């Protein structure tokens, strides 16, 4: 660790991992409700469990991004973070807001209150005061990192990372508008979440991946930057109008079916480019970095993102296909592998890289971490296959033959059992990962032999 | 005379080429979708197409390729440090871009007067989508040309001209498919 | 891909008669393709002629305006892709060549 203020990342990573644990446990519960639908139906209804599962995912991923930014920006800009205090204040606001959301959701406090109650929406459900808190925290963050970068060295990695983080914060402002029309509500929700995960988050992903490749493979910065620019251009080109693939059935004019189909099909390209980038860098790289776990997560991230976001996304993005598959388990299959591949693995990769440095355990072999990679990845891939089969059968029975929803659910119950099993494997993997990050101290390989000078 | 290979062989800024390839891909797929949907109603498509004003569109082809010529000329002038001529050529190219937009506007106005909209027939949905998206690029291109006429470093003019040639190229692909194949 | 390209041997920078030739060629080709549509020949032949002319125009723009004549492999690659695109378009058209 070259800069003292990189330590900020440690607390962010801790919070992110805590929420990660809660998220996967919530997912496990939701998976159990699928096979035993009456579980906790009074106390903690499925819609609340699902919302906690998805929202805690988003929150921990963003917290991880913040941590990653605090970790890598000092090194890239070659100076300390502008204000350490502000960074901790920002985290405090986020934690209080998150707890406020959870308590408000679960106990449905202040129902109907403009400022304090939840908003009765499916996803952008946070009470207004939490949203305002998120914006304040984001502003603090942007001020803090922008000041650091402005005063320090500007690299392509920090530029793209900042662009992505600014976009992330600005797009969140759409969540304040709460139209009473349900179709409009969806449209504005997509302005937030689609333009996040298929737009600016890809910039964050590409820049963090580029940083990891730079550190782990020792390939020239110039080469990494060229790739980075191409990936970012492809992501923005396809992702922005790709939002159209959410407009098919919400009452927008029919031409959106073609805009959405064509542009969202091209969203495969940046994910393919990221995968190609990661493998070409490793293949070209001359550095044998001891942190094999971080490398494994990086390559896993690029690969699973390509399949989860790219291939599984393309499977049902054409409007002719989506007409039948919309909202079936196909969507769940895509959602799980895409988020796990692109953003969960990315966070876990930067955790794996940064944590040994932050905790002074470098160099570090991380066998347990690698075991957790295989547990989580195989669990998630199996879940994706299972849900894809379930979704295919569901599409046929429900959308083609016209069977009733609940009858079809009974037909695919076997898949939900298998999904629960694979979910259990993922949870074990996640808990193992967290354990491997924080607890063992002795997994050190021989110091010096494989050490290479930093770039 | 092969000195460079791979992506380094592409003249100018790499990102411009990423844009050019992406746009070609989008319009190419859009035009193929148009041709595929045509098969669901060939006579309806032919009838709808007969409502188009081919002469205006053919005129616009001439306008665009001439404008492209001027933009290419501008880069040539700039490389020889004839900056005033370069700027003049760029402004002239932009002016022809405006002519294109005026002709296109008249075409759209004519359609509107006949009560034709994107909902009239799938043909017109594709027609408005493809030509409208192209016209948006022409509008952007005019602004880009004026911008690089103002900030006239060689690299800027090269990138601006490349954008303009892309718009030109797309029109060359679009025009025969949408206007001529009946 | 054997599209005629009469001005290939011009240098990349400096005096370039190729540019003016390219412009005139584009104008003539455009005129020819518009003219082809009014010829009293079957639609299939008109369509083929129009698309071949468009392919040549695209190649002229790529080679001269976009200066790919200095990057031959890219020029050939893109030409092949565009030729493939027009072949697909023609194929889709020929399935049902509606006459006007």
From TrEMBL, chain A:
Transmembrane helix as UniProt keyword: yes
Localization per record: Membrane
Signal sequence annotation: none
Domain Cytochrome oxidase subunit I profile residue range list: 172-455
Predominant location category: membrane
Keyword Transferase included in the entry's annotation: no
Highest taxon, organism lineage: Bacteria
SUPFAM superfamilies: Cytochrome c oxidase subunit I-like
InterPro entries noted in UniProt: Cyt_c_oxase-like_su1_dom, Cyt_c_oxase-like_su1_sf, Cyt_C_Oxase_1, Cyt_c_Oxase_su1_BS
UniProt topology in membrane: Multi-pass membrane protein
Alphabetical UniProt keywords: Electron transport, Heme, Iron, Membrane, Metal-binding, Respiratory chain, Transmembrane, Transmembrane helix, Transport
UniProt xrefs under Pfam families: COX1 (PF00115)
Bilayer-spanning residue ranges: 12-35, 55-74, 86-109, 129-150, 157-177, 189-214, 226-249, 255-282, 294-315, 335-359, 371-394, 414-438
Sequence similarity: Belongs to the heme-copper respiratory oxidase family.
Name assigned to this protein: Cbb3-type cytochrome c oxidase subunit I
Source organism of this protein record: Ruegeria aquimaris
Automatic annotation (TrEMBL), chain B:
Main location: membrane
Subcellular location: Cell membrane; Membrane
Keywords, sorted A to Z: Membrane, Transmembrane, Transmembrane helix
Gene3D superfamilies, sorted: Cytochrome c oxidase, subunit III, four-helix bundle
Membrane disposition: Multi-pass membrane protein
Ranges of residues in domain Heme-copper oxidase subunit III family profile: 16-182
InterPro entries recorded: Cyt_c/ubiquinol_Oxase_su3, Cyt_c_oxidase-like_su3, Cyt_c_oxidase_su3-like_sf, Cyt_c_oxidase_su3_a-hlx
Membrane-spanning residues: 14-37, 57-75, 87-106, 126-150, 162-181
Homology family: Belongs to the cytochrome c oxidase subunit 3 family.
PANTHER family linked: CYTOCHROME C OXIDASE SUBUNIT III (PTHR11403), NITRIC OXIDE REDUCTASE SUBUNIT E (PTHR11403:SF6)
Protein name: Cytochrome c oxidase subunit 3
From TrEMBL, chain C:
Presence of keyword DNA-binding: no
Alphabetical keyword list: Cell membrane, Membrane, Transmembrane, Transmembrane helix
Xref: Pfam families: COX4_pro
InterPro entries membership: Cyt_c_oxidase_su4_prok (IPR005171)
Domain of life: Bacteria
Membrane topology category: Multi-pass membrane protein
Subcellular location(s) per record: Cell membrane
Membrane-spanning intervals of the chain: 21-39, 45-62, 74-96
Keyword Iron-sulfur listed: no
Protein name per its UniProtKB record: Cytochrome C oxidase subunit IV family protein
Species for this entry: Ruegeria aquimaris
């Amino acid at each position: 660790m070259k800069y003292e203020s990189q330590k900020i990342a440690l607390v962010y990573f801790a919070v992110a991992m805590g929420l990660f644990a809660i998220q996967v446990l919530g997912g496990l519960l939701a998976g159990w409700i699928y096979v035993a639908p009456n579980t906790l139906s009074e106390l903690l209804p499925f819609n609340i469990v699902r919302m906690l599962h998805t929202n805690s995912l988003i929150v921990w991923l963003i917290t991880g991004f913040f941590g990653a930014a605090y970790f890598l920006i000092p090194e890239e800009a070659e100076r300390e973070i502008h204000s350490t205090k502000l960074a901790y204040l920002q985290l405090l606001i986020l934690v209080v807001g998150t707890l406020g959301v959870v308590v408000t959701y679960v106990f449905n406090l202040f129902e109907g209150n403009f400022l304090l109650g939840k908003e009765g929406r499916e996803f952008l459900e946070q009470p207004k005061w939490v949203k305002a808190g998120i914006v304040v925290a984001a502003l603090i963050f942007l001020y803090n990192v922008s000041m650091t970068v402005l005063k320090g060295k500007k690299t392509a990695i920090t530029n793209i990372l900042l662009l992505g983080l600014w976009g992330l914060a600005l797009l969140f402002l759409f969540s304040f508008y709460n139209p009473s029309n349900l179709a409009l509500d969806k449209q504005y929700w997509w302005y937030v979440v689609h333009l996040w995960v298929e737009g600016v988050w890809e910039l964050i992903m590409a820049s963090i991946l580029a940083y990891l490749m730079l550190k782990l493979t020792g390939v020239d910065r110039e080469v990494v930057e060229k790739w980075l620019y191409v990936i970012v251009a492809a992501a923005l080109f396809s992702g922005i109008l790709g939002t159209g693939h959410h407009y098919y059935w919400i009452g927008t004019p029919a031409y959106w079916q073609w805009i959405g189909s064509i542009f969202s099909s091209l969203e495969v390209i940046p994910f393919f480019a990221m995968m190609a980038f990661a493998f070409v860098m490793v293949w070209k790289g001359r550095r044998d970095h001891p942190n094999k776990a971080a490398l494994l997560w990086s390559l896993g991230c690029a690969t699973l993102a390509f399949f989860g976001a790219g291939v599984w996304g393309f499977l049902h993005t054409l409007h002719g296909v989506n007409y039948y598959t919309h909202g079936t388990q196909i969507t769940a299959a895509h959602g799980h592998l895409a988020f796990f591949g692109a953003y969960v693995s990315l966070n876990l990769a930067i955790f794996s890289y940064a944590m040994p440095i932050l905790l002074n355990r470098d160099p570090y072999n991380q066998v347990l971490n690698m075991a957790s990679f295989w547990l989580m990845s195989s669990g998630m891939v199996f879940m994706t296959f299972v849900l894809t089969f379930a979704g295919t059968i569901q599409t046929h029975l429900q959308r083609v033959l016209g069977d009733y929803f609940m009858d079809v659910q009974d037909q695919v119950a076997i898949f939900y059992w298998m999904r629960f099993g694979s979910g259990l494997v993922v949870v074990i993997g996640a808990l193992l990962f967290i354990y491997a990050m924080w607890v063992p101290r002795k997994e050190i390989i021989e110091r010096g032999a494989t050490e290479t000078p930093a770039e | 005379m092969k000195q460079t290979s791979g992506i380094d062989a592409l003249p100018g800024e790499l990102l411009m080429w990423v844009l050019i390839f992406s746009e070609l891909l989008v319009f190419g797929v859009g035009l193929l979708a148009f041709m595929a949907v045509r098969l669901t109603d060939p006579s309806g498509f032919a009838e709808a197409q007969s409502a188009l004003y081919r002469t205006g569109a053919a005129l616009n082809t001439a306008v665009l390729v001439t404008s492209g010529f001027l933009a290419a000329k501008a880069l040539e002038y700039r490389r020889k440090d004839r900056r005033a001529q370069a700027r003049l050529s760029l402004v002239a190219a932009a002016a022809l871009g405006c002519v294109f937009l005026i002709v296109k506007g008249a075409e759209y106005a004519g359609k509107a007067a006949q009560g034709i909209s994107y909902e009239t027939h799938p043909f017109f949905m594709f027609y408005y989508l493809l030509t409208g998206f192209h016209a948006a690029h022409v509008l952007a291109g005019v602004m880009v040309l004026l911008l690089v006429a103002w900030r006239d470093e060689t690299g800027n003019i090269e990138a601006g001209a490349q954008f303009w040639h892309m718009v030109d190229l797309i029109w060359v692909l679009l025009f025969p498919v949408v206007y001529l194949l009946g | 891909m054997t599209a005629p390209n009469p001005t290939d041997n011009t240098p990349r920078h400096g005096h370039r008669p190729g540019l003016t030739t390219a412009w005139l060629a584009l104008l003539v080709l455009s005129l020819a393709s518009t003219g082809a549509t009014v010829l009293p020949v079957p639609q299939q032949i008109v369509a083929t002629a129009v698309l071949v002319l468009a392919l040549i125009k695209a190649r002229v723009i790529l080679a001269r305006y976009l200066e790919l004549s200095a990057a031959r492999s890219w020029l050939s690659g893109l030409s092949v892709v565009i030729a493939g695109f027009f072949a697909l378009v023609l194929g889709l058209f020929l399935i049902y060549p509606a006459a006007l």
